[in-house]
């Protein structure tokens, strides 16, 4: 239990020293920053988001909006499409700092509201992208750590507990060590083939620990638990050390949009290091749906159901999958669930931007193979380059992106859609 | 509930695989005539357009080696440019006329296309590719109408057997459809010499809450289309529609393509195997010896 109140962390003291420390690509995110140009929410006196938008000579905002969109697009382009081994079956504890530092108002409406709203989105998206994974929630306040949910695969449990009023009130000091120790002991029984992770959302600049936190770091490293931290205020040395030692990532947020981005970076399964590769074949069952008339009690919740599944091992009735059979402990999944994670393993290659050359002389233009006049996927016409009134608008509309494998051209919207939602190239699957 | 301002977007994917339709035409029990099927489909499409002025439509042909939009036509398509608006009969609704003309002429182009005659493309259909195109188009329409809600659905007229190599793209499309709550309805023809059991498509309709219907009597296709697939998604709750009782969620193992109900799954790449092995053939991971 937390008895001593010694701030074990070295605290960065002012904005000037912080600037260099966090691994943030400043020039990329420039368009999202506030008026001061510094970008840190807690440094800003007024929110002057309208200053980012500059009217062009015709008094239109289209150019400014487009350039922001293009910046976001470029950032997304950096996505790694290498095929790596990923720890698809994940076990993650989400640790949320609920100390007094969370009550600050620099993130709107407040740090705690912003964090918990994003945490809910994170839980939903996490299960969407990692269907076989599990998650648990831990909060830390009053120098204690409290486990709100055990590891489980049901998103509604976690969202319900995050929404509960009693779990939304920040108070006291946080205890990083207590939270990490609690998560570590809870992750101890996780099978070796699954990845163990802790994600900390940390607002405070201090921590109130009962013991030496360096010992905890060693224990985490021994247990091969990966700790990532998203900091809400300034960079803190102890967090940096933890992440470095456990091969996690440490990022500090600048504003609400950046916060979401950093948090959601933790959703795709992380690549696994070869050393900790404890892969294994897991025995799984694929149950068949069954209809019951009259309704039958399910083996898992003892509730009457009309539609359910039959465990292929022991034929007991299950109301929903994925789960472990309560009778014979066989892992029950469906093949679509497995397929849901295949796109992490076979990502779509990034499209190349095609820069149209100068307009060809008429003689050549008729002989050369013309560029397609429209997007392959959605038939959106590419705007002609010349003769349009608004240069920035044309820049966006006529931007075309080409798949390196099927050589089809796609518009900007489809490029984003293909890589973020569809996960397969419409040109390549048509061959 | 939907309100009157909703835009209804229907994307139809028509399987135009020549081999399957040829087999179906020569089936002794239930011969299928492609032309008749397309005629009935066009009536159904006209019915969809006539329900509301705002109703949107896309028709995609899923051919043996490509997928192609039949409607709407790509901008600046030679078809539009070449013949300058042939005289529209005075008593025909303009939209019906446009759709019918585009579909018929594009289909003719596809059938006449010599490239598809090669043997390697025999009896397959690019359903996954067509789904990808349909979803991209739906995404564009949704984006263009951000202020109105767009109710989108996809109807697949399917006759070809499943293509195992398209399993992952098909699944990706299904999940993308599920994300934007687009239902995938499947209308499947099967007879003794064609069709057969599909594994992917029932999953598609089950996951996206669509309807899967094996057409028992293809000559009455229009009735099935009008009664089952025409009502918009918001009306479906109040209708008694056909549904498939048992959906097969069993997986085929990667090693022998056997359908298994208990299998072994590689923890790294999630490939499914029917027996224990030392090394994963998909991702080359070496497994520790079983204890």
UniProtKB/TrEMBL annotation, chain A:
Domain of life assignment: Eukaryota
Chain ranges of zinc fingers (C4-type): 311-328
Gene3D superfamilies for this protein: von Willebrand factor, type A domain, Zinc/RING finger domain, C3HC4 (zinc finger)
GO biological process: DNA-templated transcription; nucleotide-excision repair; regulation of transcription by RNA polymerase II
Ranges for domain VWFA: 91-267
This protein's name: General transcription and DNA repair factor IIH
Protein's job: Component of the general transcription and DNA repair factor IIH (TFIIH) core complex, which is involved in general and transcription-coupled nucleotide excision repair (NER) of damaged DNA and, when complexed to TFIIK, in RNA transcription by RNA polymerase II.
InterPro entries documented for this protein: C1-like_sf (IPR046349), Ssl1-like (IPR007198), TFIIH_C1-like_dom (IPR004595), TFIIH_SSL1/p44 (IPR012170), VWF_A (IPR002035), vWFA_dom_sf (IPR036465), Znf_C2H2_type (IPR013087), Znf_RING/FYVE/PHD (IPR013083)
Protein localization: Nucleus
UniProt keyword annotations, A-Z: DNA damage, DNA repair, Metal-binding, Nucleus, Transcription, Transcription regulation, Zinc, Zinc-finger
One Gene Ontology CC term in the entry: transcription factor TFIIH core complex
One Pfam family hit: Ssl1
Recorded family membership: Belongs to the GTF2H2 family.
Disordered: annotated segments: 1-35
GO MF annotation, one: zinc ion binding
PROSITE patterns per the UniProt record, alphabetical: VWFA, ZINC_FINGER_C2H2_1
Automatic annotation (TrEMBL), chain B:
A family per Pfam: Tfb4
Compartment annotation: Nucleus
Protein keywords: DNA damage, DNA repair, Metal-binding, Nucleus, Transcription, Transcription regulation, Zinc, Zinc-finger
Coiled-coil stretches: none
Biological process terms in GO annotation: nucleotide-excision repair; regulation of DNA-templated transcription
Chief location of this protein within or outside the cell: nucleus
Range of residues in the leader sequence: none
Gene Ontology CC entries for this record: transcription factor TFIIH core complex; transcription factor TFIIH holo complex
GO MF term set: zinc ion binding
Domain of life: Eukaryota
Complex and partners: Component of the 7-subunit TFIIH core complex composed of XPB/SSL2, XPD/RAD3, SSL1, TFB1, TFB2, TFB4 and TFB5, which is active in NER. The core complex associates with the 3-subunit CTD-kinase module TFIIK composed of CCL1, KIN28 and TFB3 to form the 10-subunit holoenzyme (holo-TFIIH) active in transcription.
Function according to Swiss-Prot or TrEMBL: Component of the general transcription and DNA repair factor IIH (TFIIH) core complex, which is involved in general and transcription-coupled nucleotide excision repair (NER) of damaged DNA and, when complexed to TFIIK, in RNA transcription by RNA polymerase II. In NER, TFIIH acts by opening DNA around the lesion to allow the excision of the damaged oligonucleotide and its replacement by a new DNA fragment. In transcription, TFIIH has an essential role in transcription initiation.
Family: Belongs to the TFB4 family.
Family matches, as PANTHER family: GENERAL TRANSCRIPTION FACTOR IIH SUBUNIT 3, TRANSCRIPTION INITIATION FACTOR IIH TFIIH , POLYPEPTIDE 3-RELATED
Protein name, per record: General transcription and DNA repair factor IIH subunit TFB4
Biological source species: Geranomyces variabilis
Organism ancestry: Eukaryota, Fungi, Fungi incertae sedis, Chytridiomycota, Chytridiomycota incertae sedis
């Amino acid at each position: 239990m937390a008895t001593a109140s010694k701030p074990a962390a070295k605290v960065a003291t002012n904005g000037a020293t912080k600037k260099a420390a966090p691994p943030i690509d400043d020039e990329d995110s420039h368009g999202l920053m506030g008026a001061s140009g510094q970008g840190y929410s807690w440094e800003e006196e007024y929110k002057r988001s309208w200053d980012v938008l500059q009217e062009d000579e015709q008094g239109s905002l289209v150019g400014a909006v487009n350039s922001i969109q293009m910046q976001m697009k470029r950032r997304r382009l950096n996505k790694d499409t290498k095929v790596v081994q990923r720890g698809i079956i994940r076990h993650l504890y989400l640790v949320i700092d609920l100390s007094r530092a969370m009550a600050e108002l620099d993130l709107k409406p407040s740090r705690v509201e912003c964090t918990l709203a994003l945490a809910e989105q994170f839980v939903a998206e996490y299960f969407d992208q990692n269907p076989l994974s599990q998650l648990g929630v831990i909060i830390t306040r009053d120098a204690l750590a409290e486990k709100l949910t055990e590891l489980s695969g049901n998103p509604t449990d976690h969202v319900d507990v995050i929404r509960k009023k009693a779990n939304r009130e920040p108070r006291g000091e946080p205890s990083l060590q207590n939270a990490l120790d609690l998560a570590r002991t809870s992750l101890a029984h996780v099978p070796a083939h699954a990845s163990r992770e802790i994600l900390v959302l940390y607002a405070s600049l201090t921590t109130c620990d009962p013991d030496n936190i360096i010992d905890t770091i060693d224990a985490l490293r021994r247990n091969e638990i990966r700790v990532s931290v998203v900091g809400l205020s300034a960079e803190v040395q102890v967090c940096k050390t933890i992440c470095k030692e456990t091969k996690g990532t440490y990022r500090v947020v600048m504003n609400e949009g950046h916060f979401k981005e950093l948090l959601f970076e933790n959703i795709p399964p992380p690549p696994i290091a070869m050393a900790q590769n404890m892969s294994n074949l897991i025995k799984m069952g694929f149950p068949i749906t069954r209809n019951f008339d009259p309704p039958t009690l399910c083996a898992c919740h003892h509730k009457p159901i009309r539609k359910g599944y039959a465990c292929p091992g022991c034929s007991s009735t299950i109301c929903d999958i994925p789960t472990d059979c309560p009778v014979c402990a066989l892992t029950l999944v469906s093949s679509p669930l497995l397929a849901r994670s295949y796109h992490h393993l076979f990502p779509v290659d990034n499209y190349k931007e095609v820069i149209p050359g100068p307009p060809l002389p008429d003689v050549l233009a008729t002989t050369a193979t013309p560029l397609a006049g429209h997007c392959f996927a959605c038939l959106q016409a590419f705007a002609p380059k010349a003769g349009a009134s608004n240069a920035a608008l044309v820049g966006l509309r006529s931007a075309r992106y080409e798949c390196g494998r099927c050589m089809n051209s796609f518009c900007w919207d489809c490029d984003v859609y293909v890589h973020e939602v569809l996960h397969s190239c419409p040109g390549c699957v048509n061959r | 509930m939907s309100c009157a301002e909703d835009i209804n977007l229907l994307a139809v994917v028509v399987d135009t695989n020549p081999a399957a339709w040829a087999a179906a035409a020569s089936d002794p029990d239930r011969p299928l005539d492609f032309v008749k099927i397309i005629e009935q489909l066009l009536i159904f499409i006209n019915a969809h357009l006539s329900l509301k002025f705002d109703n949107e439509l896309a028709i995609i042909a899923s051919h043996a080696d490509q997928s192609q939009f039949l409607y709407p036509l790509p901008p600046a398509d030679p078809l539009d440019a070449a013949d300058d608006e042939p005289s529209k009969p005075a008593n025909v609704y303009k939209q019906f006329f446009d759709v019918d003309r585009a579909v018929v002429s594009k289909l003719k182009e596809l059938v006449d296309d010599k490239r598809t005659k090669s043997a390697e493309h025999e009896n397959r259909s690019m359903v996954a590719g067509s789904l990808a195109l349909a979803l991209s188009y739906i995404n564009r329409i949704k984006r263009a109408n951000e202020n109105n809600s767009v109710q989108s659905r996809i109807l697949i007229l399917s006759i070809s057997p499943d293509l195992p190599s398209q399993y992952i793209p098909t699944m990706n499309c299904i999940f993308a459809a599920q994300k934007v709550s687009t239902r995938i309805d499947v209308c499947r023809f099967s007879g003794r010499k064609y069709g057969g059991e599909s594994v992917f498509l029932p999953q598609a309709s089950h996951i996206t809450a669509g309807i899967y219907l094996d057409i028992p009597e293809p000559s009455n296709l229009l009735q099935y289309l009008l009664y089952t697939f025409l009502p918009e998604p918001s009306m479906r709750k109040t209708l008694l529609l056909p549904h498939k009782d048992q959906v097969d969620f069993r997986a085929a193992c990667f090693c022998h393509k056997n359908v298994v109900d208990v299998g072994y799954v590689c923890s790294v790449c999630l490939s499914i195997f029917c027996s224990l092995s030392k090394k994963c053939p998909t991702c080359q991971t070496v497994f520790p010896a079983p204890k």
